[in-house]
Amino acid sequence: MVPPQGLSGFFRRPQPVKPLAGQESVWDYPRPPRVEPHSERVIVRLGGQVIADTTDAVRVLETSHPPVYYLPMDAFPAGALVPAGGTSFCEFKGEAHYFDVVAGGVTAPRAGWTYPEPTRGFEALSTRVALYPGSMDSCEVNGEQVTAQEGNFYGGWITQQIVGPFKGAPGTAGW
Fold it and tell me: For residue 6, how many C-alpha atoms fall within 13 Å in the half-sphere facing its CB?
């Protein structure tokens, strides 16, 4: 059965929100994605503890996705990143390996990932880890609490400087 709006209704590009001064639209991000250094202060908490505090993050920017922040592995205390089983594959970055994130008696299973041998152009990710912000107590960028990207596949970090709509929510798979 074809829905009333027709099949094309499932695959139409959404109307981007027009960014205000100082904001970025995820619809202006490139595809394939781009890695860019980001010197804002990033603080991550889990189990009531600060597990990362750095100004040496990079962001991966991809059309329709909020930025994914990758933090240096050496920004985490010993024992916070525990290798977890399984991998996944990104057509752009290569094979991802996962971590359980552990602090303060809390374990966030497979809540972090890295690309130990990324494809060309993504070499900066080889010594960094990304985190699902919804699995942490909190993630902050320059003191602002991050909102997690909807869904359980992408790991985007949404701040007031980022406008969408964002891929990840139900009904967005065809974007």
Answer: 2
Nearest Cα neighbor of 117 from 91, 97, 132 is 97
Q: Could you tell me the two tokens for 79?
A: 């024992």
| Cα distance between residue 82 and residue 68, in whole Å | 20
Q: How long is the chain? A: 175
**pTM, 2 dp:** 0.91
Helix (H, G, I), strand (E, B) or coil at 28: helix
pLDDT tens, residue by residue, 12-46: 778 999 999 999 999 999 999 999 999 999 999 99
β strands within the chain, DSSP E: 24-25, 34-38, 42-46, 49-54, 57-62, 65-72, 81-90, 94-103, 106-114, 128-131, 138-141, 144-145, 147-148, 157-158, 162-163
C-alpha to C-alpha distance for 96 and 114, rounded to whole angstroms: 5
C-beta separation of 33 from 88 below 8 A: no
Residue 120's region, left for phi above 0, alpha for psi from -120 to 50, else beta, is beta
Residue 139 near residue 53 (C-beta atoms within 8 A): no
Q: Strand pairing of 162-163 and 24-25?
A: parallel
